[in-house]
Amino acid sequence: MAKKLSGLSPELLIHPGETVLELIEDRGMDQKELALRTGFSAKHISKVISGEYDITTRFAYSLETVFGVPASFWINLQANYDMEKSMSIH
Predict the structure, then answer these.
(1) Distance between alpha carbon 84 and the CA centroid of its chain, in Å?
(2) CA 10, 23, 69: angle at the middle one, nearest 5?
(3) Domain spans, the chain
């Protein structure tokens, strides 16, 4: 029998989009400005922030350009979220 390694319930998981929102707010930006700077639509930004869309590699590199936070950070944040989410289901 597989052992559940994570004690987090699904409602305690934090989607990487919340980190994006924090950075936007910290920098005095809004979602529309981030959309313009990344080349992604405002709808896409909104969906990432709400947790409906994941952070893709392409989006991670765009975030790196805008925020100066390495794309690997965003990719790892998404991967860790996905892992925790899958472990909380079992």
Answers:
(1) 14
(2) 95
(3) 14-89
**How is 17-65 classified by DSSP, letter by letter?**
HHHHHHHHHHTT--HHHHHHHHTS-HHHHHHHHTTSS---HHHHHHHHH
Query: What pTM, to 2 d.p., does this model score?
Result: 0.84
CB 84 within 8 Å of CB 9: no
Q: Which CATH class is domain 14-89?
A: mainly alpha
Q: What is the pLDDT along the chain (90 residues), one digit of tens a residue?
A: 333 445 556 567 899 999 999 999 999 999 999 999 999 999 999 999 999 999 999 999 999 999 999 999 999 999 999 999 888 765
- Closest residue by Cα to residue 14 from 76, 66, 78, 74: 78
